[in-house]
Backbone:
């Protein structure tokens, strides 16, 4: 069982809980941190001084004092009024990741919530209650306010306890109103007290959740893209010299050296490489370490940012010892927005260079003597289209990526009567990066599928040839699930099978 303490949550932990339902509990240290910050809050409530978000309104209403007897209502009103997100529901794994990150944030011990608030989130994770959260409507600045409020609707309530105000949730495969889901799971809903509503919905948590899952998926994609590259390099009888360790060392970028080393290992023992006797290959082959390596280096930076964020106190104000309350801007999603823009750009480039290799494999003038569109028999060209259309699909996805990769964090519109006059747009950046990762998985699947067919045809030309050790393993894995078909067939379902294998990490293990 994973224990959270507010300081040591990892991306691997998030994946385990969000996708594989690993149970979660609070560590003893985490319980103590939460209780200590709650004691700080209770002492503050005894004072008469105005403290933002505790006994005042929010945003433009920060100067309005709230009476003590109305503080519970203040938290409830915040959740009700802010739950205005729209669009399609976020995937279950994203919502579960956000719940875990929010619980960890509150466990850090600067938010002033009760232990019961965090434990309720963990109970929901452990018992399978997943709020339905629309994906649009967050600027990622005062946190993902609207999205987190939809989450809070499910597990929080008030004296009236209205079912129609409880949001929606999924439980045991059924969509139902939040109150019903919580009752079915045997989890008591909470009346939020002073500061607790703000502590729950103030932070770019859904942006961070998407980011963490995208990082995990990108690591799989980048390694798989190197397998696809190696298969294409052999199918096209390319030059391995461009992957020589001395070239990579002369430039010094670690990602570049990593890609080249992996390709050298995958192609070790190949007798196809260099057979075409070209002096050098096109950029999509020769410069692949430089392009795909830059994606690894970008990912390393993004991991640092997101690992800090998932262990950060991100609401406002924050509580400290001796009754100190500090109002700041840790909820602002700019670090996540920029990181997701960088990640989206990097992954989009990996898809772009892969599509150029797919094109090269299908062009009879560029593929080293293979049939145009990899049609099996020359006299069947025209009657058969071969792999013409998978390249179209790859090109379409690459073009979409190029639009999605336009940076979102550079865009801002003011909100809340100019009190929030510079917004991060982090959630949009995260959603776009996620879509780029999904698109790229399909592009890489098409390259694997196309390169596999090209290798079939190449080995027919040179029956005595041997594939590299890793390349052969990838080819064998592909053919186990997708047997070769000579003539035109419905390629679509087969490519979907390969895409699923890509996302499962099957090729990344080679």
Residues:
């Amino acid at each position: 069982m994973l224990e959270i303490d507010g300081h040591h949550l990892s991306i691997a932990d998030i994946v385990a809980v969000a996708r594989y339902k690993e149970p979660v509990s609070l560590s003893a240290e985490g319980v103590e941190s939460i209780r200590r910050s709650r004691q700080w809050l209770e002492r503050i409530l005894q004072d008469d001084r105005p403290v933002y978000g505790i006994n005042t309104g929010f945003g433009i209403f920060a100067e309005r004092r709230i009476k003590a007897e109305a503080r519970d209502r203040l938290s409830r009103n915040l959740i009700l009024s802010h739950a205005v997100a729209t669009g399609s529901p976020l995937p279950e794994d994203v919502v579960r990741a956000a719940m875990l990150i929010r619980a960890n944030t509150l466990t850090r011990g600067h938010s002033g919530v009760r232990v019961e608030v965090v434990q309720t989130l963990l109970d929901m994770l452990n018992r399978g209650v997943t709020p339905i959260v629309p994906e649009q409507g967050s600027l990622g600045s005062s946190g993902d306010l609207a999205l987190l409020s939809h989450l809070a609707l499910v597990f929080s309530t008030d004296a009236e306890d209205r079912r129609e105000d409880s949001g929606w949730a999924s439980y045991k495969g059924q969509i139902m109103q939040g109150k019903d889901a919580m009752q079915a799971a045997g989890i008591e809903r909470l009346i939020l007290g002073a500061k607790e509503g703000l502590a729950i919905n103030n932070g770019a948590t859904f942006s961070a959740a998407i980011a963490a899952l995208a990082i995990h998926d990108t690591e799989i994609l980048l390694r798989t893209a190197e397998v696809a590259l190696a298969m294409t390099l052999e199918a096209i009888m390319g030059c391995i010299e461009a992957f020589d360790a001395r070239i990579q060392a002369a430039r010094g970028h670690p990602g570049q050296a990593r890609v080249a080393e992996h390709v050298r290992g995958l192609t070790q023992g190949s007798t196809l490489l260099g057979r075409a006797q070209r002096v050098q290959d096109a950029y999509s082959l020769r410069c692949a370490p430089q392009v795909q390596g830059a994606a690894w280096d970008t990912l390393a930076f993004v991991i640092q940012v997101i690992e800090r964020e998932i262990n950060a106190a991100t609401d406002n104000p924050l509580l400290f010892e001796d009754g100190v309350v500090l109002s700041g801007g840790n909820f602002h999603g700019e670090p996540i927005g920029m990181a997701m823009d960088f990640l989206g750009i990097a992954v989009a480039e990996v898809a772009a260079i892969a599509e150029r290799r797919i094109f090269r494999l299908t062009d009879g003038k560029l593929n080293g003597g293979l049939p145009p569109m990899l049609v099996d028999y020359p006299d069947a060209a025209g009657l058969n289209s071969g792999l013409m259309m998978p390249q179209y699909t790859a090109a379409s996805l690459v073009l979409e990526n190029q639009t999605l990769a336009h940076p979102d964090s550079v865009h801002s519109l003011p909100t809340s009567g100019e009190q929030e006059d510079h917004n991060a747009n982090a959630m949009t950046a995260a959603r776009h990066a996620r879509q780029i990762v999904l698109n790229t998985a399909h592009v890489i699947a098409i390259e694997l599928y196309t390169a596999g067919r090209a290798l079939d045809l190449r080995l027919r030309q040179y029956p005595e040839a041997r594939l590299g050790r890793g390349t052969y393993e990838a080819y064998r894995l592909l053919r186990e699930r997708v047997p070769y078909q000579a003539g035109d067939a419905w390629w679509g379902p087969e490519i979907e099978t390969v895409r699923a294998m890509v996302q499962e990490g099957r090729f990344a293990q080679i």
